[in-house]
Amino acid sequence: MVDLTIDGAPVRVPEGSTILDACTSLGIDTPTLCFLESLTPVNACRVCVVELESSRALVPACARRVEPAMVVTTDSPRVRHSRKMVLEFLASSVDLSTAPDARRYCDRYGADPGRYGAAPETVAQPVKIDNALYVRDYAKCILCYKCVEACGADAQNTFAIAVAGRGFDARISTEYDVPLPDSACVYCGNCIGVCPTGALMFASEHELRRRGEWNEARQTRTDTICSYCGVGCTLTLHVQENAIVKVTSPIENSVTGGHLCVKGRFGFEYVQNRPDDEGAPS
User: Residue 172: helix, strand or coil by DSSP?
Assistant: First the structure.
């Protein structure tokens, strides 16, 4: 066990824990966008930074391991200012309209992206609709690397996507920038499951949002077990107006860790193949 101090409070956590783990054990709500428990931390978004005594720079709580006698401050003026600036830069460069956590953090830290322009400026990319299962809108992408990690060694081991380009031209891309159906993608949808901004979205959700009919307040969530094989993956069915609109999996589930295959995530249409009023399949 390792003893350290966070915001004046002593805390003891197992060796190998991160500062974020220690903060969580104290009930401190640390903002994160690129972090997920089931993925390798990549320190991309920098909104979880904290102040560490004797350290010149702020350190990422999601990746920095605890050390004995550490003294950490999570809500100092320096930390708040850094988080505010990062959120302003993100919100001024991408569309965060479908990123509720990011918008909540902007409100918490008083971020004003309008200081950098009236509308977000990002890499000019049209919405990519090249398959029937999910939509890619990289104007909403904050380059958190979650989709890359989930497609790679942390979950699927398909390696169908990676970051291409540099600087302002950096973007998520398939190999040689080919259309998704021509890539190595196996349509597991794990990239959608980890995306924090809606840059990757179920086609069903995208269509409902386009029509102005998406309403999470009217949706129910029901856990069930996938019927396709004997692994026993837990599915969370999101249902609106008696129709499944998307499928997720609980990250804390020991079987899936939040990840699914193409059948579990997208193979629900047969449930909704109901006869219409005239007796024909709808």
Answer: strand
Which residues have C-beta within 8 Å of that of residue 236, sequence separation ≥ 6? 221, 222, 223, 247, 248, 249, 250
Residue whose pair of structure tokens reads 């600087």 in the numeric block: 167
Q: With cut-offs at 50, 70 and 90, classify the pLDDT of residue 253.
A: confident
Cβ atoms within 10 Å of 225's Cβ, excluding its own: 12
Q: How many domains does the chain have?
A: 1
Q: Considering the domain boundaries, does residue 203 fall inside one?
A: yes
Q: Is 144 exposed, middle or buried (0-12, 13-18, 19+ CB in 10 A)?
A: buried
* Sign of the dihedral defined by the CA atoms of residues 75, 78, 81, 85, in that order: negative
The DSSP 8-state label assigned to residue 66 in this structure reads: P
Using an 8 Å Cβ cutoff, are 189 and 201 in contact? no
Which CATH number do you get for residue 195?
A: 2.20.25.90
Cα of 150 vs its chain's centroid, Å: 10
User: What range does the domain containing 173 cover?
Assistant: 134-272
Q: Give residue 165's pLDDT band: very low, low, confident or very high (50, 70, 90).
A: confident
Residues 6 or more apart in contact with residue 220 via CB below 8 angstroms? 238, 239, 240
Cβ within 8 Å of residue 54, ≥6 positions away: none
| Domain assignment of residue 155, yes or no | yes
Residue 114 lies in a domain: no
Full-model pTM: 0.84
- Domain contains 191: yes
Longest dimension (CA), the chain: 74
